[in-house]
Here is the input.
Amino acid sequence: MLHTFLGETIGYDLIYKNRKTIGIYMDLYGHVEVHAPKGTSDASVLQILEGQWDLILQRAKEMKERAGREKEYGPGGQFLYLGRLYHILISQDADIEKDNAVFEEDKLHVYVNEQNEESIKQALKRFYYQQCKALVEKRVKFYQSEFKIKPRSMRITDSKTNWGTCDSMRNLTFNWKLSMAPIEVIDYVVVHEMCHMVHMNHDRSFWRLVGKIMPEYERCERWLAVSGWRMEV
Here is the structure.
């Protein structure tokens, strides 16, 4: 679920339990869970959330900063791929002409000419970019049957603000970091942008079309709101 208050949006999961009070919990990645007694009204949940709003934002910020500082680019490091965390395995070879990475044997295997943080980063970025291009092209083709018009072009970009865009000429762009997300989240971003070929704004007609194609799209929005910050190299 998403809730916006004082200009800030928080994503959280609401879990009903056999308990007497409402509790707010946060994991090591800043993900918020609200545990509430069965039958608790939405208004009561939001009242508790808003009452601790500043504290929640501050703790989430601290946890995200700590997680960012703790990112490892050597043995033991972990990175997201299709929604799951995988360890990286690094191989150094002076004959390697272009640093690269492949997914094999349940690990992200990174091959570099020189083992340092920047080389590993670039190898991983190249891997995610290539995977995103292949995945998005496949999913656009899959969902094309839902539309009478086609995209004019599609490209992968390095955006700091958008997961995807669609302009008035039906040119689609997608963020290379999407290959870190679960496939259903990639599907949601693809469908979202393809729906903009029909409706350029976010009016009711737009969301009706999104919901018709992906009835559970709000769950994907929630995943991006809660976990999108983890999609970094």
